[in-house]
Amino acid sequence: MLLHFPGGIAIAISGLVGGTTIVNAFKVPQTPPATSAPINKAQLSVSLEFFTFPDYTNIPSTTNCLANIQTLRGAPPAVRIGGTTQDRATYDPNLTSAVQYTVPDPTVAPSSLTYGPTYFTLAAGMKGDVTIGFNRQLNNLSNVRAAAIQAKSVMKNLLSVELGNEPDLYSGSSPIVPAGQPWNPTTDGSVEKQWFTDLAPDVGNIFQGGVYLQFPSWSTQGLIPRLGSAINTTVSFSGHSYPQSACGGASTNLPSLMNHTGIKLYTNRYASEAAAAHAAGKQYFLGETNSATCGGGGISPTFGAALWIVDYVIQGALSGVDRMYFHQGTIGNCQYCFWGRFIVGAPYYGVAFVSEFFGTDGVHVAEIDDASDALGVYVVYNAKNYPVRALVYNSAYFDGTGTRSNSTVTLTGIPQSQKKKSSISTETKTTTARAKRLTAQSAISRVDQGGVVTIGGGGTFDNTCKNAGTQSFESVVVDKGTTNVTVRASEALIVYF
Ligand SMILES: *[C@@H]1O[C@H](CO)[C@@H](O)[C@H](O)[C@H]1NC(C)=O
Ligand SMILES: *[C@@H]1O[C@H](CO)[C@@H](O)[C@H](O)[C@H]1NC(C)=O
Ligand SMILES: *[C@@H]1O[C@H](CO)[C@@H](O)[C@H](O)[C@H]1NC(C)=O
Ligand SMILES: *[C@@H]1O[C@H](CO)[C@@H](O)[C@H](O)[C@H]1NC(C)=O
Ligand SMILES: *[C@@H]1O[C@H](CO)[C@@H](O)[C@H](O)[C@H]1NC(C)=O
Ligand SMILES: *[C@@H]1O[C@H](CO)[C@@H](O)[C@H](O)[C@H]1NC(C)=O
């Protein structure tokens, strides 16, 4: 097999595996190729379920997990507060607590709730941009107006406001559905337009439109023309994305979740949505996402899901998605959550790893593999358009049984260290570069079941999401700008140039 690089160079370097010649050689483009994409400072962000947002602010891991991302990226992740329970919430300006509801058991989401002004005081304390989702389903515009005015008045970090969560799932008998009309994208578009236009004079042009789950039947592309001139009241559009479903006990599939080719195909579906928003001068976010719907399934807390996050976030950026907000649901009943009250799960290690790959200096990311096999190979560029790091993801599935396969990847065109040279050129002699590995016993390893996931040999997170253990770099030989790195099945590696 011969790999063709963008730019037409074909390089064959062979090794014999099982009698088949495998070529895994990738040339690092010296400047961001045309296929590269910008990296948003908050590319990987989080979504917190509406009713339980105040509880999240009381968990040390919330602060620490978000702070780690901020340290790695040089900017705080954005926070979206919303979800199913935003459409069950009513604002009570007299409520002294942030939220009030009763549930039969703490792992169950409430069927209705009220929230008060201190809810926004808590939201104002979040470090990054905040988006808040209000209730549209109950059709109480005056109530939402009062809430949004309060939010706007206390939150300097308020980026945007959503009106309704996944309105595509509203029943035809919801209070918001106009009498005698079917509930479909056309009706929803006219109601969104009406609500945006009505509320904008009081809260500003700060709406996040869409918030749809069922793409492509409900889409940003379809919504934009329906908004007409009301487009100027929006800042962004949001789609919700879950590659798998775990609702009603549906079965999930880990090899499929972490399949590099599959991730690329899946994520590319959103490219047209991002393009539509960008053409209107707006940002496009996957405003709520995670591995599987309904809080996640058995695949969600695994190390394989961490690897999925690494590849999915990069592929999202490459598809034009400006930010991806990973949903954190009911505390204590959430398979895909990055953290809970008592533990930091395996997926968070993927969050930290891809954040480290993007770094504080990453401005563009490019894919240099052709997504034809299990290997994902990416390069990050800094503001001077220099390649600064590469990441290799070996998505071959290893479940802990049998022999763990590996792939040796040859990277060519590695630039001479920028510390040594003011302008870029390929290294002409033998030097070394540093590398850092994300690994675990297998793709099915779970921190909550005693699995050991590590970054840089010994780096972990303690139960409050503080860095624990010791991360260290591996050293790889770079000969005339070429290095060979070996990445085992279900593993990822960053090479620092
Ligand atoms: C809030 O309290 C004031 C003063 O007690 C009262 O007039 C008002 O009706 C209350 N508002 C709500 C929404 O309960
Ligand atoms: C709408 O909210 C207001 C308070 O903002 C409340 O007084 C009113 O009863 C609500 N209407 C409905 C139909 O629930
Ligand atoms: C939005 O655009 C419409 C039509 O161009 C214009 O009439 C309106 O004033 C604009 N609104 C704002 C808030 O800019
Ligand atoms: C990954 O997905 C691609 C595309 O759906 C498929 O052809 C391939 O067999 C999958 N690989 C594995 C290891 O499941
Ligand atoms: C890679 O696989 C080969 C062939 O099975 C094996 O000999 C070698 O030890 C493996 N290397 C690593 C780092 O796992
Ligand atoms: C990389 O592997 C190729 C093929 O085995 C070998 O020719 C080359 O010397 C290796 N380069 C380095 C820097 O180890």
Automatic annotation (TrEMBL):
Keywords (A to Z) from UniProt: Hydrolase
Q: Which domain of life is it from?
A: Eukaryota
Beta-glucuronidase C-terminal domain: from which residue to which, for each copy? 378-494
The cross-references to Pfam families, in alphabetical order and at most eight, read:
Glyco_hydro_79C
Q: Does the keyword Hydrolase apply?
A: yes
GO MF terms, alphabetically ordered: hydrolase activity
Q: Which PANTHER family match?
A: BETA-GLUCURONIDASE, BETA-GLUCURONIDASE C-TERMINAL DOMAIN-CONTAINING PROTEIN
Output this protein's name: Glycoside hydrolase family 79 protein
| Annotated organism of origin | Rickenella mellea
